[in-house]
Amino acid sequence: KEKNAAEPEFLQAVEEVLESIRPVVEANEEKYRKEAILERITNPDRQLIFRVPWVDDNGQVQVNTGYRVQFNNAIGPYKGGLRLHPSVYLGIIKFLGFEQIFKNSLTGLPIGGGKGGADFDPKGKSDREVMAFCQSFMTELCKYIGADVDVPAGDIGTGAREIGYMFGQYKRIKGMYEGVLTGKGLTYGGSLARTEATGYGLLYIVEELMKCKGQEMAGKTVAVSGAGNVAIYAIQKAQQLGAKAVTCSDSTGWIYDPEGIDVALLKEIKEVKRARLTEYADARPSAEYHEGRGVWSVKCDIALPCATQNELLLDDAKALAANGCIAVAEGANMPTTMDATKYLQDQGIWFIPGKASNAGGVATSALEMSQNSERLSWTFEEVDAKLNQIMVNIYHNIDDAAKRYGKENDYVAGANIAGFEKVVEAMIAQGVC
Ligand code: NDP
């Protein structure tokens, strides 16, 4: 704790995992102590921090800090996104990389855990500036990654445009055409359904939860936060399954649209124009725009936080419970604070943590890696069907793990235990490394 005191998000993520795997650790205490499993799994294999100089449109040199934390490769090459956001520092990347180990394990696919990014804000930058940054970032990062070593992907602030610029620079420096990044464009090795995967996967696991609890998705009211990649496709799939998604948000405000969010309009504003949500309200008479935060004050059956970490707080959890919410599933990484999670679980609200419910994105990235290795492209339907099956399997995997340790309905424990067991077995089999 003292060593990482300046990294509260990392401590929060580790604390949550360690707390919920306690029964597994107690059952294997001697072996894990001798093997120093907890010390090894909470210390990254390596942490890279580097300078990213680039020239802005005024000819001024700007300097950002780049990161790549390669956390654990016991079950496969490091895999995890690159976050470009001013809030990025080592603690955020470590928290995300640590979570990624267990998430990737849960997918059932051979991928280890890593994460990276920079404190660069693509918002308001010209395409040329974004390209200059991405090229400089990759000039350093390319020394440490590779299709069988470490395969980064998108995350907040890193979409198809940024991945394209980074891929181009990797190829140019290395002289090699390989699947070193996922989330690529469809004309150069990207996978169909990757764009939709995290949001769709979130709904597939919620659909399975509902089915197993004797509930239907059709007719449910869904509150969603965020208006980015995850949120947009979560809203789209929710509507396809017959539910009504009535909210979305960005970092300045939120929309309540009781008639259901118009996905085409939202996509136009966020994906094409890269504009603010005020434009949504201007174009849609049924919608209300509110400054600040407030998505969780709306009456809903299912809440899907899809924006960022620590965005669903204890008071929000209380409001959701008071309004009759029955399930919360995280689309973002760690959007729910620990006290809010505990409150929701104590109220009997089914709570699926991000490492299980948003694993569809990285799972489909791993499917992109498979397609790149095969030099083949699968159809949308093939990828989507595999994604659906992976999410259904994750639900049953975490449900079974929770039950095995007498923690029925505790999907936080179930996800951490199931993800942890597999990685630890591989670590022990591979000796001290
Ligand atoms: P995007 O950058 O596409 O979208 C993020 C959205 O969240 C934007 O609408 C952004 O608004 C909003 N947001 C950011 N910060 C805040 C805040 N403090 N309060 C309210 N809204 C905020 O990112 P993604 O959709 O890709 O990622 C969202 C989350 O999902 C992240 O936690 C990410 O790590 C996680 N995730 C993403 C995956 C993927 O495949 N994309 C896979 C697994 C997890 P604004 O535009 O104003 O910044």
TrEMBL record:
Residues 191-431 form the Glutamate/phenylalanine/leucine/valine/L-tryptophan dehydrogenase C-terminal domain. InterPro entries: Aminoacid_DH-like_N_sf (IPR046346), Glu/Leu/Phe/Val/Trp_DH (IPR006095), Glu/Leu/Phe/Val/Trp_DH_C (IPR006096), Glu/Leu/Phe/Val/Trp_DH_dimer (IPR006097), Glu/Leu/Phe/Val_DH_AS (IPR033524), Glu_DH (IPR014362), Glu_Leu_Phe_Val_DH (IPR050724), NAD(P)-bd_dom_sf (IPR036291). It comes from the Bacteria. The keyword Oxidoreductase applies. The keyword Amino-acid biosynthesis does not apply. It holds the Pfam family ELFV_dehydrog_N. Keywords: Oxidoreductase. GO terms for molecular function: glutamate dehydrogenase (NADP+) activity. Belongs to the Glu/Leu/Phe/Val dehydrogenases family. Homohexamer. This is Glutamate dehydrogenase. It comes from Brotonthovivens ammoniilytica. The gene is gdhA.
